[in-house]
Amino acid sequence: MQYLLLIYDQESQWGNMSQADQGRMLQDYGDLTKSIQQSGHFVGGNQLHPVSKATTVRVRDGKKLVTDGPFAETKEQLGGYYLIEAKDLDDAVAIAARIPSARFGSIEVRPIVVRERVAA
Amino acid sequence: MDIEQIYREESGRILATLIRLLGDLDLAEEAVQDAFAAALVSWPKTGVPANPRAWLVSTGRNKAVDLLRRRAVLESKREELARLNGLAEQVAEAPEETMLKDDRLRLIFTCCHPALPREAQVPLTLRTLCGLSTEEIAHAFLVPLPTMAQRLVRAKQKIRDAGIPYRVPADEELPERVETVLLVVYLVFNEGYNATAGDTLVRRELCGEAIRLGRLVYQLMPGEPEAQALLALMLLHDSRRDARTTTAGEIVLLEEQDRTRWHRDQIAEGLELLERALGRGARGPYALQAAIAGLHAQAKSAQETDWHQIVALYELLLQAQPSPVVELNRAVAVAMASGLSEGLRLLNALEERGELRGYYLLPAARGDLLRRMERWEESGDAYRQALAFVSNEAERKFLRRRLTEVQGQTR
After folding, report:
1. Which of A52, A53, B261, B351 has the greatest count of CB atoms below 10 A from its CB?
2. What does the DSSP assignment read for B199-248?
């Protein structure tokens, strides 16, 4: 079986942490990743940019609607995901608009944080 | 030409080009500042170069590359260094005129990207394409400076982190993207035409900038009648610029303007653009407003204006774009077409609804109709109310003068 582990937290909390605490947190994430890589559990994982960098895509009556921010309605539930490589946001949005559920739900396009690979 | 003037006229273009070259808005802004700082030092000695823009672009680019190199060395990023060395060589050729134009167009589509909040699109365009300071923009939108600064920072971060591209959208994307661009150009023009604060009524550079942006957008999309109509609208309004204020900077209302001082060449161009836009089916808010401005431009005097047709156009505008401000304008036109008391009745009803509370033009319009009806005391009250809300110095002066006039009548 494969499982998707979704990480929910308060973005503001991170900003309020001291640099030392942030460092410990990143260290903990690094340790966990390494550990589950060694145990053979790890398939993939990424940090997302905060919701202020999100863009929502909907298609209604064949027309693509692009708006700033995450606007999932409370009656909408997370139903799946695609991880894509795209040239830029327009490219990503064009693909998002082709997802069938965009016609009645919403697709949140969140950029992924690119980290300099730390020497292993 | 002095450096300050070059800064005002060229910094937007230089920034747009540097953004394309460097791919980073913040870095490009820094590079523009550095380039002008370098000019301040070297031009007094060497004289202004023959092509100041090219000089500033290449100086800014070199400064940015230096800065990035230092950063890359600090962080020992070898790949980054290689990329920068490549960049320094690749952009050595000075940008040509057409490329500069394209750079600005690319940048306006980025600033008006639908993934940015509306409240950031206009200030970002004003900041990057028109070179307004954050302070001026905050002032224009009646927002505290830190709020506006934060808005701009967030927008730039989103452009960078979400990968909002610097390019003109593909053909199939153009219609919806252009709608936002037209709105932003229109808002820039309005900011110049009716500066909401400060003591210069007509900020000609801002109007000129909006007209240049409008031309650029129209040239890119000659098939878009609304872009053509917007350009017509701006030209027709701007044609009155010299007649709208006295040499002392006081406001002259449309009906009292010396129409021989209107710029006939601009009116002719505006009317021609408007006619073609209407012929191609433009019926949107810009076309309707341009048609209204066109009727004013063609009338010999306020009395000889076709007010009935203007009322009809405002009716259409209200259907296309319901807004209490449009209702206010329609009420004033009704007063001219069908009598002062009818116009006053509409203004009173509008005031009762309370949607325009704090908007000085509503009591100012009421004051004017009451003044014409010789209801001096009520007129004075209305002008006093307007004075409490006005923020533009020229408008304040005008309202004070009118108030003194009506007070003189009651004694």
Report:
1. A53
2. S-S--HHHHHHHHHHHHHHHHH-TT-HHHHHHHHHHHHHHTTGGGSB-TT
Q: How far apart are alpha carbons B58 and B36 in whole angstroms?
A: 11
Size of interface A-B (CB pairs under 8 A): 48
Rounded to a whole number of angstroms, the CA Rg of chain A reads 17
Q: How far is the alpha carbon of A39 from chain B, nearest alpha carbon, in Å?
A: 32
First to last CA, chain B: 54
Reported ipTM: the value is 0.84
pLDDT in tens, B68-123: 888 777 766 666 667 666 666 655 454 555 666 678 788 889 999 999 998 899 88
Assign residue B398 a region (left: φ > 0; alpha: ψ between -120 and 50; beta: otherwise). alpha
* Polymer length of chain B: 411
Cβ distance A86 to B161 less than 8 Å, yes or no, reads no
**pLDDT score for B210:** 87
Count of beta carbons in the 10 Å neighbourhood of residue A110 = 17
Whether residue A88 and residue B161 make contact (CB cut-off 8 A), yes or no, is: no
Q: Which residues of A touch B117 (CB under 8 A)?
A: 68-69
pTM for the model: 0.75
Query: Which are the contacts of B153, defined by CB distance < 8 A and separation ≥ 6?
Result: none
Q: Which of B113, B150, B180 would best serve as a mutation to test chain A binding (most A beta carbons within 10 A)? A: B113
The closest alpha carbon to B142, from B58, B198, B184, B73, belongs to B198
Interface test with B, best of A55, A109, A118 (most B CBs within 10 A): A55
Partners of A58 in beta bridges: A65
Residue B173: its chain A contacts at CB < 8 A?
90
Contact B162/A at CB under 8 A:
yes
Amino acid at A58: R
Closest B-chain CA to A111: B162
B165: which chain A residues are within 8 Å (Cβ-Cβ)?
87-91
Per-10-residue mean pLDDT of chain B, 411 residues long, equals 81 87 87 93 91 91 87 70 64 56 83 91 85 78 86 93 88 82 89 62 69 84 89 96 83 91 96 96 94 96 94 96 93 96 96 90 96 95 94 87 90 61
